[in-house]
Amino acid sequence: MSQVTVVGLGPMGSKMAETFLAAGHEVSVWNRTASKADPLVAKGARRAGTAADGELLVVSQISYQAMYDSLGDARLDGKTVVNLSSGTPAELRTAARWVAERGGTLITAGIMVPPPGIGQPGAYTFYSGPKDVLDRHAGLLGALSELTYVGADQGLAMVYYQAQLLVFWTSLTAHMHAMALMRAAGVAPQDYLPYAQTLFTELGDDGPMGYAKILAEEFAAGVYPGAANSMHMQAAGLGHAVDTLIEAGVETTVPGALKRLFERVVAEGRGDDGLGTVIESIRKP
Ligand code: NDP
User: Fold this and answer.
1) What interface predicted TM-score (ipTM) does this complex get?
2) CA-CA 20 to 30 A from 173: which of 14, 76, 105, 246?
């Protein structure tokens, strides 16, 4: 049994505190709006006097600014702060220095599940910061999810986390465009769903449609073969997809931006390359 103070009791922090309690740990809780601690206190948590009350602070708030606002000018000598909030890698590195200046150590984290997934099989969290410090708390943090350690640089947890979220948001928005197109044609979302599920699976596997892996290999090699499916063809094809949405009366902000990106790739002289070449334009805005 370990002691932990959970700082930030939104949907995520509340579920984390509950999960620590269920695992038998001694849990203190703190939130800016104090009343959000009440249900957890009813379940056996202790109400912390301040956000810095405890040796191990597990923080889950809307931003890193919220951590600064919550801890204020408290000393953090010998304390470990594990922050699972969203931010940018540069913000996390700045926060690591801020915590160190107050005598503490910051472990940064990006948790890859919504509240119901916390503590469930398949949940994982990217962690970065000093490994020996993380290892000391691995038993407790393991109650939330699997620990995926990505390196000592405190910014790295957010590099991995934001990479995953970019894929999450953009691919699911594409799925919503596809469903809107279907609905406009009178097709029920459930009738289209099996095809979407097949495509999502195939893109991640090792087969001929396994483009997650194919593009990673092409990017590593810096070679983007396009004989079978050139960017000339794909830019024209994407134009047809966008026109299909327009015909259907569906909005086109994201696909339209993608069309302009593909056209730029061709204009830059790489129309004979394959899809992977788009990354060379993405890297140079
Ligand atoms: P929010 O991101 O809405 O965060 C709410 C918490 O932040 C509350 O405790 C709130 O306090 C606190 N807060 C906001 N501003 C301040 C401030 N200036 N000072 C002190 N506390 C502040 O809710 P979630 O719980 O959903 O998310 C927490 C973090 O987890 C976020 O960074 C989010 O990106 C990340 N995350 C969320 C997931 C999800 O599915 N919800 C999944 C994975 C990660 P108060 O109650 O007083 O307003």
Assistant:
1) 0.99
2) 14
